Amino acid sequence: MSILVRSPGDLGELVGKPGETLAETLRRTLLDMIVFGYFERGTRLYPEKLAEHFNVSLTPVREALMRLAAEGFIEVIQRRGYHIRDPDAKQVLDLWQVRLAIELMAGELMIERLEAGTLPETAVAEIEVIQQRLAVEPHAISHKDRHELNGSFHHKIVEFSGNDLLLSTYRGIQMQVLNAWIQRGIESWRLRHASEAVEHNAIIKALRDRSPDDYAKAVRAHLARSLKDAQADLKARNLIEELTQSRS
Has domain 89-247 been given CATH number 1.20.120.530? Predict the structure, then answer.
């Protein structure tokens, strides 16, 4: 199967960020293309075609593909090259468990910094602003925008922990990307939009009150619900794709 565009939008455009290597720009661009449906399920990725598409050499393309393979978004099949893979139940469970550990520690450290005065109260306000941007009617926000804002909400808490290793680990697990990947092609996330806002606001209140216990309770409840829904979304998506394939 060759490269196939489903809903281009702004996908497939190679736009670098300051200080970013070409290989990282390619990895980030390809990751968005995978997550938001640029490629059909099972698509084979040809390095030569990608290099031609992006007008770059083969070396950074191969580096980007190998990194995506290491992260679990594509698989390398002997003599058959690189193929888009799908998330599986174990990958979902493993990542949610790691996420819970990181976000619990991050919030605790953030609260310690707020209490010590080494982190300004405006940090909480920054997180609240992100939630305010999320708090729109479900039909008024795209999946991609919702994914990016939700990711920023959680990322900020880890960032404000002040622990660079914790932040680097969190970035590495690609948590929010996996969530969007699972939800590709289904609209169930819109039904949970309001309840998610309530959970986010409970997290914000705990941070503002500088209460580690309330924060832990809010995060555990939020991620337990999120995991349950991610597992349900994964089953629903797999069923839809199986039915689609059986009819084709």
Answer: yes
